[in-house]
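Can anyone check this?
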Amino acid sequence: MAKSIQDINDYKGYKNVTVGSLIHILRKHEIDTGNIFTFSEKHELNPDVTLNIKGKIYDNKVAYDKLVQILTRPENRGKRILLVSDTGTGKSYALIRLIHELNEKFNAKKSTISPKKQFAIYSCPRRALINNLKGDFESDRYSAMLTGSDNHMAIERNIIINQSSSFITTIDHAPRIIEDKIEEESSVSDKKSTLPSLLVTDEIHVLSTDASFKLDTIRDYFIAERTILDTGGISLHVTATPENLRTSDYDMIIKINQEDHENPFEEAGYYVLDKSTKKLKSQFLRMIRFAAESNKERKLLVFIEDKEWIEYYCEQLQQHNINAIGIVAKKESERHKDEITIINKGLINGDIQVILATTVFSSGVSIINNGEMDETWVLCSHNSLNHELTRLTQMSHRFRNKYHAFKIFFQKAEAPKVKKAFLYHRLLEEKVRKADNSKELVMKVRRNPSDFFMSLDKMELESGLFSDKNGKLHVLTQKAQSELIQNKTYYSYKNQDALIRELEERFQCEFKNYDEDIIDTVEDEVTENESVAEQIGLSNLSSKEIIKMIIEDKNVYGRLKKEYIKFGRGGKKGLMGKIKRHAKNDLIYFIENRVDYDIVQQVMNCHLQATKDEPCSYLEHKAASQEVEKIKLTKNSSIQVMMYRGLNFHLKRAKENEKDIVFGTLAEMDHYLDNILTVFVKQHGFELEETSIDGKYFRKLLNYGYRKSNGDREYTIVGFMDDRVLKEKYGIRKIV
């Protein structure tokens, strides 16, 4: 030990000893450092403009005027700007006021012979947020709400487009409005004007997670954004939680600090609940009941990422005379009046004690009549994506008045033996760098596209690229972000202490471990034996058993149609809710397109025989067949076209030599495809591992056989998926 002290003293005091040196000293003296040191990634937001305020943005004239000045300066035309400010600073209110002022200026410049050339769009990733802002946004005579679900007749929609200068809309519908406005104006860009068109994207961080399940929508949105920028407009991204964003994607960053900002809660903490999902379900319900029954005046806002659990909890709480309401994604016409009041006005009716909500409620919606004893709870179960800093931060701010406690409930997870930091931003930069290399590769391959607009193939899109209206290629950062956020969420699920440290740093407060002083929960168990399916008169059937019933009995298929009409695509009740994903997707497609029952039988028979090694998905195989047909007919070079030609060459050689192309695993097949791709990529001066192009994607387009002999698997590439193969595989006469 004396020697250790001498070693450390040689570094002239602890303050000058690096962590690496300290670990080296400890290990040299056989001291196991194990998990003593836990590292984390530091990522600084370096704003170009910093504004300090007290209270709300709009009430601070200097800050508000500076914001208006930035968004109307001619030199900022064509720029993407990020606005960061904490929840509760009045970002939405200030931006709506700004848009209303722009409307006055837009329309003051308009004459009877000169159409207005500027417009503003306020895009929101959630319809609930639009409903929350609608009344304020439409309070001037030039603004309108316009979304794809408004059911306007074409002539009504055209009138709204023509007569309005600004629109509040969804991410999904904004591209169409932009296209319509630009078609309406022969020249959107007025070089003499100091008032560029404005595209505001509120809660921009949500797009980074949404890209994991609606990538095409996010891609279309950024294509539309490029149109705004290329015509001299300004794009403003707005968020309170920029942690997952890439700051180099912005031409300017504005940070508004609220000097008198306080956390929305008095205290924060967490519980670790049972590892068993079944036990967790009843345990969490008991805790909600106990909290509600112990204080009838307290309101609980509970976030759960499972619609079925929310429905079940609402039913159980109502049985115990606790007034509970669920808020999930659904059509506006299907919402209860109390839901509409909460979403649109931010008001909880007095007799409602528990609000159970999914993330549809977690971004932007504000409850303005909560009390100081109320609490926000978040369930972080194994199957949820709530183990994520930005999600939790957003959920914590839905109550706008100071409330008692923000509580997180973790389902117990086994921590990894060796803890490592998740270097999100370093990994993001690596993914973007590879996507940039892919862009350069595609540009070399596409020297002379036959069309002015460069249409990317599936492999090129999957590499994280998109092409704007002028044919210029861009990296879709949100795709890389969505993949890493999923990985980080899993990391946080396994490393819950790391997530707690992130939260403590974000909120600058301690998150208490409530398990150390856990409350006594209500002892009586809620019945768990009866599943939702049983409650509505169904037996406990497996997916394959239901598929077998569909094949054998046409009436079962008729019943599924009725269920689909009642519960929709996302319904988990009834028979449809128990069918596995690929078979379910095929069935919904057949129901929606009124496909003949004999075709349904044949395809379901394929699903009945499907295994992990021989999967079945009519829709995916049909899409592959269509993609192969496009490759055959195209006159352009592309990554997929070159892969098709390369593999076709190898198939012909194999046929000539009377040798099959056989693999023991699908991983070996993917490696083979990567080797073909590597040769092609090297011809254009790149290394495959330095791009984001993945040969595995091309496997989706192949027709390959499978057999098992003496315990060994064999996968044989036969050719490419086409209509003939599709008909043979599913035993059908025609493609539907």
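Reply from J.R.: I decoded it. Residues 424-445 form the longest helix (22 residues).
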